[in-house]
Specification:
There is one protein chain. The chain is α/β, with parallel strands linked by helices. It is 39% helix and 14% strand. A seven-stranded parallel β-sheet has the order 3-2-1-4-5-6-7, with helices on both faces.
Amino acid sequence: MKAFSLEGRAALVTGSSQGIGLAIAQGLHEAGAGMVCHGRQERPSEVPERAAYVSCDLGSSSAPALLIEKAIAAEPGLDTLVCNAGSFFDVPFLEMTPEHWEKTMCLNLRATFFLVQAFARQLIGRGAPGSVVIVSSTNGFQGEADSVAYDTSKGGLVMMTRSLAVSLAPHRIRVNGIAPGLIRTPLTGTWMETRADDLLKHYKKKILLGNVGKPEDCTGAVIFLCSPAASYITGEIIVIDGGLTVGQVGRL
């Protein structure tokens, strides 16, 4: 169905050197979009061959605008932005320091806000419509132990998605989001290996579909939200969690 095609579109996916971001970038590329990928390290071999790649640390206050500038240099028709870059820096609540707190907020919240701002400015400047997808988390709706800063940042992204949708609708820029649940990535894989016999078993019983998600499970929703098929959708967040947050008890 052509409504789901991204032919003629150009997209930047932040944090797309691995995990969910890489899977999203590969999916957008397969759907026909010109791609700019981003990460902190040098270009990984898994990045689509024809995609441009920009390496930078989004923790710097000047980095979001610079990344958008470089992405437009690579893909002048840039009209799609997926804000996926983020990480987890929490320690137990009573041990939280201002430095850990600020590191979380700078990457997960501030960078996202100013990426969208820089992206929107260039779209508005050339009178072009566009689409933004912000990757939040089910942690934006439900709290988790020793995860206060991360949960707060993801909850902020939920509200940011809705508020930006209001602000950018007059400029024909749609803003939507996805909220992944438990997905096996390089970030989550470490603790899954160490807690396979207890915590991971608990999660698998709580997830209605019975298994931990893969990065590729997040791809279809993003393609849809960026495509013409979603042209009348803005301010929405699709939860991708296998039913983790639906049932109170899970499977016994």
